[in-house]
Design goal:
mainly beta; Coagulation Factor XIII, Chain A, domain 1; 2 domains; 7-stranded mixed beta sheet; 5-stranded mixed beta sheet; 9% helix; elongated; binds 2-acetamido-2-deoxy-beta-D-glucopyranose; secreted; EC 1.14.99.56; signal
Length: 341
Amino acid sequence: MRHTQSASLLAALLSATTQVAAHGHVTNLVVDGVYYEGFDINVFPYETDPPKVAAWTTPNTGNGFISPDEYRNPNIICHENATNAQAHVVVGAGEKVNVQWTAWPSSHHGPVLDYLARCSGSCETADKTELEFFKIDGVGLISDSEVPGTWGTDQLIANNNSWMVEIPPTIAPGNYVLRHELIALHGAEETDGAQNYPQCFNLQVTGTGTATPSGVLGTELYTSTEAGILVNIYSSLATYTVPGPSLYSGAVSITQTTSAITSTGTAVVGSASGVASGPEVPASTITPAPAYTAATAGSSSGTQSLYGQCGGINYSGASACASGSSCHSYNPYYYQCIASA
Ligand SMILES: *[C@@H]1O[C@H](CO)[C@@H](O)[C@H](O)[C@H]1NC(C)=O
Ligand SMILES: *[C@@H]1O[C@H](CO)[C@@H](O)[C@H](O)[C@H]1NC(C)=O
Ligand SMILES: *[C@@H]1O[C@H](CO)[C@@H](O)[C@H](O)[C@H]1NC(C)=O
């Protein structure tokens, strides 16, 4: 009898724990149909040498949240005790990134936000407390015809628990941290009742844009008393102001869609130097390397420098890599010259 009792007590405790813990996290990104694994919170924290992915690492195995009393604490930047991702995904400015969540609880209504912060060097080594984020997306209250209303998170749930965000076409190529965030407001009528769920990813943005929008530090994004944070969503709201800094003028608002997965890609490990800003190889040291002959490799003659693109669908530039480097396929859309082993 005692055993039965303690077993059912344990079961009750476990289920209570599960309910408390069952909020969510991002499982993967999809860019142009290419699937990139996220930070596997159920596995990676227990591994001594977890895979290098574009998602930042956090020991937040309970799927918890950051509350407003931590808005001045670095935990708000990329979640609790987060450390830099050790790889990045290459994405063109103007392309869309689909961010896949685990099943989001329908009671957790609130805004969906996306920010970018440019890293001065590699985002793999950037100091998160110095990153300056500019907002590229913010969807709050969509309809309040029925309290508590239809919110960004409801749209996310309806969109297969995923969110599509467009990388602004105007921004300069380079390395960026994508800070994607859900804020649950079901308890936000009380001070410190809002729940922030930030998730960060390293991106290398390619393209020909020139804009370098100014941003704000992660620890200065929000205040605990601003209108979009301290708010009672169970009363009818005439308006709702998405919290945080104003939207970057070049941000592109898009209709939510999903992204069918057509292949699996690997995040790029190693130097995150932009294609345009990759280390220069003195002309005298360039010796022609054998052409890389994959179907999607580049087609024109010439030699690509280290970290430059050397292939991918519709890429027509040089496919040969400078001496000492070789062409590596990361996904069907992007091949890069990397240092030869
Ligand atoms: C984050 O770091 C603090 C300070 O070292 C520690 O007390 C806390 O337990 C850590 N959180 C997690 C989820 O590991
Ligand atoms: C919906 O999400 C699941 C993962 O939760 C994924 O396997 C599936 O491909 C997604 N469907 C679409 C249409 O994106
Ligand atoms: C490749 O080029 C073709 C023809 O211009 C275009 O239809 C297709 O969308 C391009 N694919 C990608 C991945 O850019």
